[in-house]
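Encode chain A's predicted structure.
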Amino acid sequence: MREILFRGKSIKTNQWIYGGFHIWEKRQVCALSNDSLKDDEISYVITVNSFADWNMPRTMQAVEVIADTVG
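Encoded structure for chain A:
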């Protein structure tokens, strides 16, 4: 199986982050009206595995990235 990694620059630190890419919509859109999401209601997130030691479970970290830098 292939592992596909994305990269993007972190909003907080401006460093490159590598991992899985996800677009997070902060609320649901109502299908019965002319409702749409605004730009501030959409986050572009890269998920990263964090470090685990001595058989402890790994946690996932979601880092919000700048949308124009994702590739």
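The chain is about 0% helix and 40% strand.
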